[in-house]
Amino acid sequence: MDPPSDPPSLTTLLAERGLFLTKDEGDATAAVYLCVRDGLPGGYPIGYALPSRTGTWFAYARSRPGRIFACDQVDAGLWSLESALRSALAHARYGDVLYALERATGNPATYRVKVPRSWTAHLTALPGITGRGGSLRLTAAAVAFLRGEPERADCHADMAGRLWLAGQPYALRRETRGRDGE
């Protein structure tokens, strides 16, 4: 049995997900926001941590995609800002935002990945993913969508080019295109 490993730092988790933290200086609530880079300076908020009067923290996350700027409370009574941000990050779903951004760029990139056969049917049900057996082909928009799934989900992608299935990483390999576009 492997010894338990320390959880990654919050900074590492944010970098792997392409997220950043911000605080609105004019915000009297002292909320700290989790944001995805959407091309605008302030980013797109997908969650936040809010202090309570008792010294604990509340965590809010965009847990229902499609609700513009709407976050639900996902945790309360947390003893630190970091634990509140980790909780918000564990629940935040923003794949629809990344999917739309990637599609808007017109990026024709595709990726290949070999996964256990048991995952093929599950993953090919998602838009932009095709395949047979244990080999899948994913569009850049599909990879972006999976990057916006919470880490606690059985399936998500990270910024390091890995597809995570039930806690196991699988390398995404970008397909190169020939001169004729094929």
Secondary structure topology:
Layout: H1 10-17, E1 19-22, E2 32-36, E3 44-51, E4 57-61, E5 72-78, H2 81-91, H3 95-105, E6 110-114, H4 117-124, E7 129-132, E8 135-139, H5 140-147, E9 155-157, E10 162-165, E11 168-171, E12 173-174
Antiparallel strand pairs: 1-2, 2-3, 3-4, 4-5, 6-8, 6-12, 7-8, 9-10, 10-11
**Mean pLDDT, nearest integer?**
85
What is the CA-atom radius of gyration, in angstroms? 18 Å
Low-confidence stretches: 178-182
Task: Give helix and strand order, one letter per element, not per position.
Answer: HEEEEEHHEHEEHEEEE
Distance between the termini: 47 Å
Overview of this protein structure:
With 182 residues, the chain is an alpha+beta fold. 25% of the residues lie in helices and 31% in strands. It has five helices and twelve strands. It has helices at residues 10-17, 81-91, 95-105, 117-124, 140-147; strands at 19-22, 32-36, 44-51, 57-61, 72-78, 110-114, 129-132, 135-139, 155-157, 162-165, 168-171, 173-174. A hairpin with a 5-residue loop joins strand 3 and strand 4 (57-61). Helix 3 packs antiparallel against helix 5 (140-147). It is elongated.
Structure at a glance:
With 182 residues, the protein is of the alpha+beta class. Helices cover 25% and strands 31% of the residues.
